[in-house]
Amino acid sequence: LGGVDYQRASFRNTTTSQSQVESLIPLVTKRIGAVIEDLIEFGAVNFVVPGDFPKGCFPSYLTKFQSSNQSDYDPTTGCLVYHNSFSARHNKLLKKEIERIRKVHRHVSIRYADYFSTGIRMHRNPEKYGIVKATMNKACCGAGGPYNYDPAAVCSRVGAVACGNPKAYIIIKWDDHH
Which domain of life is it from (predicted)? Predict the structure, then answer.
């Protein structure tokens, strides 16, 4: 929830700064809260609200924001530090919004699905999850390059090729960001 908003702002407009994308975080998290409250008004009482994935590990982000500065990368995951920090900030505000709603609507059950921590654990210990370390941060379906990602040849488009052993790849890396 919110991932597409951030990705479109980061990828579609070359003049958009990272601070402009960051300014979307409060808007997106408040909107998620507003949708939850709308659903409560309709009678919903049980929710699972997913947090953001570690975007800095997505092949699309790793390709677009490649850097020669090694300090831009987490040495334990190979992921982009800034973009994972961005996702963590989103998740922190989202959790605050969920807490606000819980206080107002005490009869409602809202569970937070922590995709971020799960994703980072998988990146730090891929073998534990049956993933080949060499495939980390690479798309299974893509068109070459260090992350097997080319925006002109994403999965199912001409030029994209699926990997020979999908089981060796982390599930969230099927293509550029799925």
Answer: Eukaryota
Note the pLDDT tens digit of each residue in 116-174.
999 999 999 988 988 878 778 888 877 888 888 888 877 777 878 877 777 766 655 54
HSE (side-chain half, CA atoms, 13 Å) at 96: 12
Give tens-digit pLDDT for 99-111: 999 999 999 999 9
Query: What's the number of CA atoms in the CB half-sphere (13 Å) around residue 47?
Result: 25
Residue 109: exposure state from Cβ atoms within 10 A (0-12, 13-18, ≥19)? exposed
Closest of 141, 142, 134 to residue 168, by C-alpha: 134
Residue environment code for 17-52, b if the CB has 16+ CB neighbours within 10 A, otherwise e = eeeebeebbeebbeebbeebbeebeeeeeebebbbb
SS3 category, 73: strand
Nearest CA to 81 among 67, 95, 102, 101?
67
Secondary structure E strands in the chain: 46-50, 109-113, 141-142, 161-162
Number of neighbouring beta carbons within 10 Å of residue 56:
27
The pair of structure tokens assigned to 149 is: 């990602």
Give the separation between CA 65 and CA 7, rounded to whole angstroms.
12
pLDDT of residue 15: 60
Structure tokens given for 100: 């606000």
